Amino acid sequence: MSTAGTAPAAQIPALSPGDLIGVAAPASPAQEESLQAGIAYLESLGYRVRLGRHLDARRGYLAGDDALRAASLNELIADEEVRCLLFARGGYGTARILDRVDLDTLWRRPRLLVGYSDITALLLALQTAGSYPVGYGPHVADLGVASQFQAASFRRLLGHGFGAQRFSLKRCTTLVSGTAEGVLMGGCLTLLQTSIGTAWQPDLNGSLLFWEEWQEEPYRIDRMLHHLRSAGMLAGVRGMLVGRPVRIRARRGRPSLSYEDVIRDHAGDLGIPVVVGFPAGHGAHKVTLPLGVPARLDTLAQRLEILPGL
Predict the structure, then answer these.
(1) Where are the beta strands (DSSP E) in 133-206?
(2) Residue tagged active-site, from 117, 153, 195, 207
């Protein structure tokens, strides 16, 4: 299928009580108990939920084979009643089906998408084609546990859309001071790196780059950032916002650079503001961060502003 349209998408409509949310599993399967708890949370907010076909399918670490996962997602995309797409969980497998996903229909009839981790592959496919706002936020399997996500930012995005808002950076660490504006883009670092050389590689020129990762040793973060920089992907970035180092540590007894050392080595000389420790993506109390939207990163004011314009 075609990758996407070439013109910017129309404004993504916010949800109202009674609207229908579709739940897909393009990557790995979710545990049934976690999935049902998340569905109950969505219903408690007044939304209706429609599960994709074969959400209980299993093929090793995948939620069914590629054809099945793609067909199930495409059915939800084609369903005109579905106003929002959420995802059972991440894991692995979304990139395997991107060439089968009906992105053209998403562009013709845009709706809200929220996900993180492996779902970055799908979010990047939309960010690559132009200004299609998406939410980098919790999966349905997260929603049944209050400590796993920040309810206020999740509910705000669903109910109010991509309007202007602010996120505090007071608990983050500034590695390089400054102020920068650009379209906020990115996602999980592994998926950003593995997009290089594919049809889904985003053009980050003029962007504010957000990335996060978890459960990796610092040398692996080093290798991924080196690849992004060597491929020219960081050359036009105007600012960098980095997630928390969730379970990022060297093996016991192995000498290592720190998380911040690695980031300084690859971004400290780019002449852009760099902030580390933003609570989006993996880890508890994750915020729902709009991507594909204009934003301002301001280290002096210690805030990230999502600007009006979409």
Answers:
(1) 134-136, 165-168, 173-176, 179-188
(2) 117
Please confirm, yes or no, whether 177 is among the known catalytic residues: no
Residues in the chain with pLDDT values less than 70: 1-10, 129-130, 309-310
Q: Of these residues, 34, 72, 207, 282, which one is catalytic?
A: 282
Handedness of CA 290, 296, 297, 303 (dihedral sign): negative
- Spell out the residues 6+ positions from residue 198 whose beta carbon is closer than 8 angstroms to its own: none
Residues ≥6 apart with Cβ < 8 Å to 71: 53
Q: Which domains does the chain have, with CATH numbers?
A: 20-160 (3.40.50.10740), 165-306 (3.50.30.60)
Q: Provide the CA 25 distance to its chain's centre, in angstroms.
A: 15
Determine whether 227 is an active site residue. Answer: no
The pLDDT tens digits for 70-87 are 999 999 999 999 999 999
d(CA 16, CA 298): 33
Give dist(CA 108, CA 95) in Å, integer.
Answer: 22
Whether the model clears a pTM of 0.70, i.e. scores above it, the answer is yes
Cα 97 to Cα 47, 132, 280, 289, 303, distances in angstroms: 28, 20, 25, 25, 36
The span from the CA of 90 to the CA of 28, in Å, is 6
Question: Which listed residue (212, 213, 216, 266) is catalytic?
Answer: 212
